[in-house]
Amino acid sequence: MTHALLRNLRATSPAEVLAVGLGIVYVLLILKRNRWGWVAGGLSSAIYVFLSARALLPMQSVLQSYYVLMAIYGWFSWTRSQRESGGAIGRWPLRLHLIAVAVIVLMSLLTARWLARATHAAWPLLDSLTTWSSLLATWLVARMKLENWIYWICADTVMVFLFTAQGYAFTACLFLTYIVIAVFGYREWQRKYRLQRV
Description:
Helix content is 83%, strand content 0%. By secondary structure, the chain is an all-alpha fold. It has one domain. Helix 2 runs antiparallel to helix 3 and helix 5 (94-118) runs antiparallel to helix 6 (124-142). The longest helix has 29 residues, at 169-197. The chain is globular.
C-alpha cells in the first residue's frame, strides 16, 4: 500500500500539483475571511473539472464546475457583506440543518442510482454524497455561515478515500490537509462569531 501511494505521488501531473496548491491557498484565505481566496479556489476548481472527469468521478467534475461559479458568487457576496456588515459570521438553525441533511441523502440516492445505470462511475453513492454535501457547504461559505466547516470535514473525509481509490494520492493528501484546516477554520470562525455577539 505504501509503495502504491509513493508511486501515485511520483506520477502526479503538474496540473494536479497546481490545483492542489491553489486549493490550499483558497482554504487558508477563506479561513482568514479574505475574498481573494475565491480567486484561488475558482482556478483550482477549473483544473479539477478535467481531472475529476478523467478519474471517472462525474459528480466531482460537476461539483468542480459549480465551485467555479460559486467562486464568482463568493467574491461578490463577500465584497457586499464586508461593505454592509463588516463580514459578520452567521449561523443556521438546527431545523434547516435537518432539512438539508435529508435532502442531501435523498438527492444522493437518486443521483447514485442514475450514475450506476448511465455511467461508468467508480463510486456512485459516495461520489453523490460528497457532491451534494459540498454544494451546500460552498453556499454556506459564500453566505459566511459558521457550520460550513462541519459539512466540509464530513465531505473531505469521504473524498480522501475516493481520490486515493482512484489513484490521485496527491489530491487525497490535499483533502487530508483540508480536514485539518477545516477544524481550525471552525474554531477560528466560532471565536469570531462569539466576539461579534459580545
